[in-house]
Here is the input.
Amino acid sequence: MRIGVINYQASNLGSLTSALGELKYEHFVSSNPTDFELADLILLPGVGSFTSGMRNLTENGLADAIYLHAQKLKPILGICLGMHLLASTGREGGITPGLNLIPGEVTKFQKSTQFRIPHMGWDRVSYQEDSIYVYFAHSYFFKLEKNPEILTLSDFELGGERFPAHIQRKNIGGIQFHPEKSGQKGLEILERSINNLMGSN
Here is the structure.
């Protein structure tokens, strides 16, 4: 298996590539769309703005590479902003169309006296079999459309509401937190997610 990591000027790739190396995955990092024809799985990382992220993907032909990969029913995994860009739309600075691979909308947390925005640092997520602490850094969340194809694999709580932390729709997955910065448990989640997506292919 070969993982292609998309470089679209919206991420710190060092910790992610280190994690992939520790997990012994063959991988490459590229901003050249044609390189991803050689990938078995595309990994879309990212931090920052939905609007600028989509602009960079589109202007560099990387969005088309992702669409082609999805059309071939090959797996894609988005992390943090990369997860958000899988959505239908984002509401940062106005409505921006996303990749529309997992139906839903990315919208900002409402101001609250119960928690701070951005949601940053270690927080607990609940998987069916486990509850663990992982590292978050975001001000927006993925509001999923009701769709039986979309699985919420884990979620987290803020201000009495629960929000998706790890989602999957067939061969497309998204992780809101940073598994590569979340210690050994984070590495295990990253490995399990990659292997599950490859198994869905």
Notes: The chain is about 25% helix and 35% strand. The two ends are 12 Å apart (CA to CA). Residues 2-200 form a domain with the Rossmann fold fold (CATH 3.40.50.880). The CA atoms of residues 8 and 59 lie 10 Å apart.
